[in-house]
Design a protein that fits this description.
Number of strands: 14
Shape: globular
Distance between the termini: 38 Å
Oligomer: single chain
Strand content: 15-25%
Number of helices: 17
Low-confidence stretches: 471-475
Mean pLDDT: 93
Strand order of the largest sheet: 11-10-9-12-13-14
Largest sheet: 6 strands, mixed
Length: 475
């Protein structure tokens, strides 16, 4: 599948063109012939017999961008002065900064914000530790913690290289949930050391968001931190994905007229996200889920299963089905891909039941190309922004933590996750649902608000809220 040009691989190319008729047309033609997309043109200045322009182009990947630039360089009468990668420009100096919430302009301001006045606040917290929630940043702070071992599709790239992703995550927390998030990239892969470090920094934060930690280590780290800490611990790669999948799943079922308890679901990729998706679907009423790895169906008694997959087998595949994912798709209602391109074939998908639902979420290349399934499935979703129905975690985690922080939750329960998924689904009124619109846009500002309200209510009902908030209407 050929990737489409996007801002992810874009550049501002400063060119000097001879001031003659047709010069810019030649430039535009070269960009088009190279498969690029001309996004913007700005005149910088006119110098004698030439014009200097900034031309913004979009490409499909880094190599494609280089090919576009080379296609421009060989044009007669056109010189390339410089090429500025727009993504790197965005990251210059980092994407975050700290800003004060109070003025600091007079001696009085200083004496209240810092010494000697601050000592009285410290004493108050010492005498009653619970007031730390009212008197410090703890009430609105989340730590985004990684060890850099499973970053995007890049794998184990280390803490320094993971930092741009963690900064981006913090940016999304603030933009969509109003939550102050802090990137914490740890220079260790040792599970014990990671757990101890997070436990040691936990007093500063109202929640912990684990990010891009490889499986199966991520399961143990999350489990141990949930047991030892009295604040929410949320592994977004697992649970954020699961929440958004649930939302899309519920709306897709409405369109095809099926119920969760009646459908057969085949899933590829029984890693962190796959396990979490399975558990949330089971909690939502699905009864028949068959997970597959490279060796086919996971079932009770299959030889060679590790601890995670053995536990998975115990809660799934009630009929003990065996065979490959392609074989299991025959007559299935739903396919969920959390693996990689080629995990299932187009021919196998065509054997699914009428009203087939396919979520091919591998990124950037889905398990099966949407173009090849047109007309053969009822509903298609991917993890990509250039197709309809993008399964994107940003729909979940800002609202989940906003709601958890609002009630000062001690944990995030399965009920809170299901409530979040149902809230996201309910953002789209039934009359607006369509095969290409089963999940809200990531820029829909209503999403985080309704998710936060639903999560807060669920936390109170589960008894994990330290305080109540004013009741909000159900979405």
């Amino acid at each position: 599948m050929t990737a489409r040009p996007s801002a992810s691989f874009s550049a501002i190319i400063r060119v000097r063109l001879s001031d003659r008729p047709g010069a810019f047309a030649e430039l535009a033609t070269a960009i088009g012939d190279a498969g690029g997309s001309l996004d913007a043109i700005d005149l910088v200045r006119v110098e004698g017999g030439s014009k200097v322009r900034d031309v913004t182009v979009l490409a499909s990947d880094a190599q494609h961008l280089e090919q576009i630039v080379e296609a421009i360089r060989v044009l007669p009468g056109i010189d390339v002065d410089r090429v500025s990668d727009r993504v790197f420009l965005v990251h210059l100096g980092g994407k975050l900064e700290v800003q004060s919430r109070i003025p600091l302009k007079t001696r009085d301001d200083l004496s209240m914000a810092y010494t000697p006045g601050v000592a009285r606040v410290c004493t108050a917290i010492y005498e009653d530790p619970s007031v730390v929630w009212n008197l410090t940043i703890k009430q609105n702070s989340v730590a985004v913690v990684t060890d850099g071992t499973a970053v995007l599709g890049l794998g184990d790239i280390g803490p320094e290289a993971s930092l741009p992703v963690m900064e981006g995550k913090a940016l999304l927390f603030k933009e969509f949930g109003g939550v102050d998030a802090w990137p914490i990239a740890l220079a260790t892969k040792d599970v014990d050391e990671i757990v101890r470090t997070v436990e040691a920094i936990a007093p500063v934060f109202g929640g912990i968001n684990l990010e891009d930690i490889s499986a199966p280590r991520c399961f143990e780290i999350e489990r141990r931190l949930r047991e030892s800490l009295d604040i929410p611990v949320f592994h977004d790669d697992q649970h954020g994905t699961a929440i958004v999948v649930l939302a899309a799943f519920l709306n897709a079922l409405k369109l095809v007229g099926k119920r969760p308890e009646d459908v057969k679901v085949v899933l590829t990729g029984v890693g962190a996200a796959g396990v979490a998706v399975t558990k949330i679907l089971l909690a939502a009423g699905v009864r028949n889920i068959v997970g597959c790895d490279r060796n086919g169906a996971i079932y009770r008694g299959r030889e060679g299963l590790d601890e995670v997959k053995a536990e998975y087998a115990a809660i799934t595949n009630p009929e003990g089905a065996t065979g490959s994912a392609n074989e299991l798709l025959a007559g299935a209602d739903v396919f969920l891909g959390l693996s990689g391109p080629g995990a299932v074939s187009v021919e196998a998908v065509k054997t699914m039941a009428e009203g087939a639902i396919v979520f091919a979420m591998a990124n950037p290349s889905p398990e099966v190309a949407p173009e090849e399934l047109e007309g053969f499935v009822a509903i298609m979703a991917t993890g990509r922004s250039d197709y309809p129905n993008q399964i994107n975690n940003v729909l979940a985690f800002p609202g989940v933590f906003r709601g958890a922080l609002d009630v000062r939750a001690s944990e995030i329960t399965e009920e809170m996750k299901v409530a979040a998924g149902e809230a996201i689904a309910a953002v789209i009124p039934p009359v607006e649902l369509s095969p290409e619109y089963i999940i809200p846009s990531v820029f829909n500002r209503d999403v985080a608000t309704v998710v936060a309200a639903a999560v807060a209510r669920a936390a109170e009902e589960a008894g994990v809220a330290r305080r109540s908030v004013a009741p909000a209407p159900a979405p």
